[in-house]
Amino acid sequence: MRIFALLLIVITFAVTGCTGPELLHRSVLGYDEAIITLEREMLLINIARRHRNVPIHFTVTSSIAATFDYVKSAGFMGRIFEGNNTDSNAVNNFGLNFGTSLSENPTLGIIPMQGNEFTQRILSPLEEDKFEFLVVQGEAIDMIIRLMARGIEFQNEDGTFKRFVLNRPSHVEEYKEFRRIVLHLASLNVGRNLFVGNLSFSTAVSPSLSGAPSASDITEAVEKGYFVIKNGEDGSYKLYKHFSGRVVITNYDPLTLTDRERHTLNQRANKRKKNFILVDIRPGYPGGDFPICGSIKLRSLNGIIDFLAEGIENSPEFHVEPDPRTGLTPQNPKNTMTILIDEKSEAELLHVPYKGHKYTIDYTSWDYDVFTNLYYLYQTAVTDVSTNIVGKSGQK
Fold this sequence. Notes:
- With 396 residues, the chain is an alpha+beta fold.
- Helices cover 36% and strands 28% of the residues.
- The protein is built from nine helices and 13 strands.
- Strands 3, 4, 5, 6, 7, 8, 9 and 13 form an eight-stranded mixed sheet that branches. The protein has a three-stranded antiparallel sheet with strand order 10-12-11. The protein has a two-stranded antiparallel ribbon with strand order 1-2.
- Strand 3 (149-155) and strand 4 form a beta hairpin.
- The longest helix has 50 residues, at 2-51.
- It is globular and about 95 Å long.
């Protein structure tokens, strides 16, 4: 009987010992899921706000600090009579008591996004590194361009302005031209003939040296990121440095160009701010019978939200056929992202109520992928993204 009592105590502590970690595990995951859900719904509700001509507003959870106080107790008490006790009425009496308690005291930092943070994160145009980051991760380039681009600027070969084509359905002919260009780029991407990445080149950063540098000079130069090259033409020496330049979209491998040609291309890209992405689709390469010389101009996050809100009713998108010169194209949905109002939807679909109406993202893989990328852009709007990956965007 004593052994039985000890076993009960051991089992009691084993059971109560599992409760605390399990509750902590559920609480941490619950906080994480709640924050993600709030951010996703906040993006959708801001689209609803713009649809109702209400300014956007974001509130962020800056921090969460939760204190968990877990207490467990167990006890055994009673009288135990041995089997040889002379009292025939003796009874083994024993009792167990155990308990657990868990108190949770969360402290959440919730602040409205305003001032400089709001300007930088929401109103400032997105830069090329955000675009390249998504495309190199394997996202569909036509999806990303339709979501992020305000339009395409056509340029002369020296980079000077020629004309601008808006990604706005209210400008019917411009919108059609924009969509045909995007479909052409998507077709090249499907065929693994599109290159998206930073230009990489080396250029001289010093005049010709009077003589061959010493070993110590070379060592010091290498430590500072420079290297020395002997000019084969006149036998002089120059100090060179490697640069990672602007993001470009091409139908050829930029590494097949000379350093001078890549440097020249980068200088052309530098004539525009970093919310412009140089597009250089040249004749003589795949898709070159539809040449494109210009830059894609990126929107701000606010501009993206406005575009999606206008597409609900005020300026709906429409179907556009690809150019006859364009090869095989991927899916070509009418809308960049379809948002339904007051439509019956299953509970698990992303939806939010706003001003007596229910806004729901259409349940297609394209629409949910677009919203996922919008969420990524929101998260990376003020985060540095590595742009050192150079290669074909179609490769995964």
